[in-house]
Structure formats: structure tokens, C-alpha cells
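lol forgot to send this yesterday, sorry. C-alpha cells for the thing we talked abt
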């Protein structure tokens, strides 16, 4: 029987999140500006997914995401009036000849992209175990940027995923509800990752 420690009775893991990517404001009238506070909260909430995966091997992955959130939040707290959205935060930090938060966002987006691709591939291929989709997503998102020392640590995590059936049961007892909420959450995550990757490819967002 699946543990219900990650969600309340009758609910899902998605419903337990402090903030969902579904609820992150994106201002389409202002070049898809993404609200900093809500995005960081949604990223912290996503990091709890690695607890659901249930292996200490994922601790470095979770810590990497949380560490990058911290770098961005520190810049936000230092200059709140210039950090209401992520894009503005980055551009204003770069004007100071620093890039701690900008680099943190770059790595955070890579981590979120990895998570999004891993889950999207798994949803699309119902016969695949999580290890297949997670290894595939890692190879195209984080692995090309990781050092020789880091690759084995993250590679071990990709092989430590639970069985597909067990993982989805940990997300909620109602299979249809889990699938519906996963698709909404995943779609919002993918949209925001896409916006930020596009922004980060611009000349003014580089250092």
C-alpha cells in the first residue's frame, strides 16, 4: 500500500505544495515577465519531489535546486524594487557587474528543465520505468554542463528512481486526479522554463 505521507487523505502531492507553477504570475504584456517570489516558492515546492522519489541519492539534486533558489532570493532581498520579476532581477544585477543570481537562475532553469523533461518523457511513454526517462533527460539537460566529478553523483541518482507504479501512487491515491494535476503542473513548468531559456539566450542576459 502506498504511503500517504506526501499528501492529505483524498488529495495529491500537487495539492500539498506551498506554491504550484500553475499559480506563478506570467505577465504576457511585459515580455512574459515571471514573478520572482512565486517562482522561487514553486521551485522550492518542486524540490520536495525528490523526497517523493525516496532515495538519498537525490539529495544532491534537491540541494542544487535549493542552493540556486537561495542565490536568487538573496539578490531579490538586496534589491527588491529591481527584482519583482526574474528577468528584471537578472538584468539589474548584471548592471552591477555581478552575476551570482543570474548564474543561479541559469542552473536552476537547467534543474527544472531536467525535471520537466524526465516527467514529460515518462508521461508520454507509459511503459517506461522512471530510470529510463530520468537518465534520458539528464543526458540532454544537466550532464553536458556537469564536471567529471559531478556526473557520477547525479548519474547514481538517475539509477535510484523507484518503480513507476510506486512513484505515481506516492503522488496521490486517485490515479485520474494525479494524471490531471500532473499535466497542468507540468505544462506550466515547461512554459516558464521555455520563457526563461529564451531570455537567457539573449545577449543582454549574458555575462
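and heres what i got for the seq, position by position
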Amino acid at each position: 500500500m502506498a504511503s500517504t505521507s506526501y499528501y492529505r487523505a483524498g488529495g495529491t502531492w500537487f495539492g500539498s505544495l506551498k506554491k504550484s507553477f500553475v499559480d506563478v504570475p506570467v505577465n504576457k504584456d511585459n515580455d512574459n515577465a515571471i514573478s520572482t517570489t512565486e517562482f522561487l516558492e514553486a521551485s522550492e515546492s518542486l524540490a520536495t519531489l525528490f523526497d517523493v522519489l525516496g532515495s538519498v541519492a537525490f539529495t544532491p539534486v534537491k540541494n542544487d535546486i535549493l542552493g540556486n533558489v537561495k542565490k536568487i532570493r538573496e539578490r531579490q532581498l538586496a534589491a527588491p524594487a529591481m527584482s519583482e520579476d526574474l528577468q528584471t532581477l537578472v538584468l539589474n544585477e548584471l548592471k552591477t557587474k555581478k552575476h551570482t543570481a543570474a548564474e543561479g537562475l541559469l542552473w536552476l532553469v537547467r534543474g527544472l528543465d531536467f525535471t520537466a523533461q524526465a516527467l514529460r518523457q515518462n508521461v508520454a511513454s507509459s511503459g517506461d520505468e522512471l530510470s529510463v526517462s530520468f537518465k534520458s533527460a539528464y543526458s540532454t539537460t544537466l550532464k553536458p554542463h556537469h564536471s567529471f566529478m559531478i556526473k557520477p553523483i547525479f548519474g547514481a541518482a538517475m539509477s535510484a528512481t523507484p518503480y513507476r507504479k510506486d512513484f505515481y501512487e506516492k503522488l496521490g491515491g486517485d490515479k485520474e486526479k494525479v494524471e490531471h494535476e500532473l499535466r497542468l503542473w507540468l505544462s506550466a513548468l515547461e512554459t516558464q522554463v521555455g520563457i526563461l531559456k529564451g531570455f537567457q539566450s539573449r545577449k543582454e542576459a549574458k555575462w
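The mean pLDDT is 94. anyway ping me if u want another try
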